[in-house]
Design goal:
Distance between the termini: 57 Å
Order of helices and strands: EHEEHHEEEHEEEEHHHHEHHEEEEHHH
Number of strands: 15
Largest sheet: 8 strands, mixed
Number of helices: 13
Structural class: alpha+beta
Strand order of the largest sheet: 7-8-9-10-6-2-1-11
Low-confidence stretches: 249-253, 350-354
Length: about 350
């Protein structure tokens, strides 16, 4: 497999290349950072719920929905990204996603420690130092390839991140800003300096070589990867892709349409992430269920099928849990930190008329 140290690239390539490698079934490790800032949301997130799109548009900050789950993030050249793409049937790749995270984040933790940050792995997919997150990570499956993405946070623009998020008012935004500062740290904060990106990337590559075998070290993406990256980004850097999960309802938890018919909305924070739901309850049955949030769901393309499976389900916690459990078994679904009961919880509290 190939190791590409690319350093600064256009923001589109920082997303397009690892997606392209997966679709081409090219095993690779990319180390890179975007030359320009942008915002990236998780595959299952609703851009209109998560991002202040008026602000990002006015400030010419692109917003992109990746094929990896998780939450909204602000990305810029102060973050060095690692993107590992492997055949999911490769012997070294654990089947279970929790085991996958544990195995392939260990080299990241050791690299942080090499450069002076007392990092630790915190299941399911966090890397922390002194109680603060120092690397955001995620995984996905595309075309029989498994992808691990994450970042070495050299420095971070807390203010810009807080401005890009959709919040109810400015007082809440101030709280987000302070919470980010309290819970997210950087190389600069932890050590007083920032390592050279090349040194970080090469150190991580050497550690992955002890697991995966020797890599071919390269400085440029190959033409096939670059061409597909450009095509994918042309297709996906558009509103239809970004807003694919946008089914915003009124802000109230329930809106009565007529006797026995309600439009409902709720959210629930599970250990594996935030679940948002909108649905219609008609005479005690669920219809038009839509699930979004910053969770991870494997395979990602099965989530719409879960929504379909819930169509017509009685609005009862036990019935919902039974449907989701059966779906997980029949479709071989994994959702680290998320249980079938969590989907029942997010649907159940909004079922009693306000």
């Amino acid at each position: 497999m190939d190791y590409f140290f690319l350093d600064k690239v256009p923001w589109t390539q920082s997303q397009g290349l690892y997606h392209a490698a997966a679709y081409l079934q090219h095993e690779a490790l990319f180390i890179l950072r975007p030359s320009d800032p942008y915002v990236c949301i998780g595959f299952h997130q609703d851009a209109g719920q998560e991002i202040d799109l008026d602000f990002t548009t006015a400030n010419h900050i692109p917003v992109f929905r990746r094929e990896v789950g998780g939450g909204a993030v602000y990305l810029d050249s102060g973050q060095l990204f690692y993107q590992l793409i492997l055949h999911k049937d490769r012997q070294e790749v654990p089947r279970n996603k929790s085991d996958f995270y544990s195995k392939f984040l260990a080299p990241v933790v050791d690299t942080y420690r090499q450069f002076g940050v007392d990092a630790q792995y915190k299941p399911v997919n966090d890397i922390i130092a002194k109680g603060r997150k120092v690397s955001g990570t995620g995984a996905a499956e595309i075309n029989d390839m498994v992808i691990l993405v994450g970042n070495f946070i050299l420095d971070f623009n807390y203010e810009m991140m807080s401005k890009c998020l959709r919040v109810p008012d400015e007082k809440f935004r101030d709280k987000v800003y302070k919470t980010l500062q309290e819970n997210l740290s950087t190389f600069l904060r932890e050590t007083g300096s920032m390592p050279e990106p090349r040194q970080l990337g090469d150190a991580l590559a050497r550690r992955y070589e002890t697991i995966l075998g020797s890599m071919d070290w390269k400085k440029d993406a190959n033409p096939e990867q670059a061409a597909l990256s450009n095509r994918l980004m042309t297709e996906r850097d558009v509103p239809d892709w970004l807003l694919a999960n946008d089914r915003r309802r009124p802000d109230t938890r329930q809106v009565k349409i007529r006797e026995g018919v309600f439009v409902i909305q709720n959210m629930f924070k599970a250990p594996g992430g935030l679940i948002r739901v909108t649905a219609i309850k008609d005479d005690g049955l669920l219809h038009d269920v839509h699930l979004s949030g910053d969770f991870f769901f494997f395979p990602a393309e099965k989530l719409p099928l879960l929504e379909q499976a819930l169509e017509g389900t009685p609005a009862d916690m036990d019935a919902i849990r039974h449907v989701v459990e059966a779906f997980y078994i029949s479709q071989s679904v994994e959702s680290p930190g998320l249980q079938p009961a969590d989907f029942a919880r997010v649907l159940t509290p909004v079922l009693t008329p306000a």
